[in-house]
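USER:
Working in pairs, take the chain set out below, taking as long as you need, and write a paragraph about the fold.
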Amino acid sequence: MDIAKYSAGTYTQQYQYKSFSPAPINVNWTWSDRKTHLLIEQANLKLGELNAFSLHMPDVDIFIQMHVVKEATTSSRIEGTLLLTISSRPSTRSWMVMAELGA
């Protein structure tokens, strides 16, 4: 399927409303734009780097949790709200409680 001709789905008129029926996504994609091909190659390289990095991490879940908390803290500062994160890690049997006031 040519990606330029792709449609996410169709709207179907029902009795008194319209419903959205998504198009199948398990198709072979083709594209004729060289830039798209280069961007997909770059994305594949970055995914490979991320996969290699995850193999060297002792516990990827802690790494991901650290970045989720960082993003939540940054968002709360922007919004000026209170952030309270409580996380239970069964593998380490520890609790992390973090409260931070927005600026």
Q: What stands out?
A: Residues 34-56 form the longest helix (23 residues).
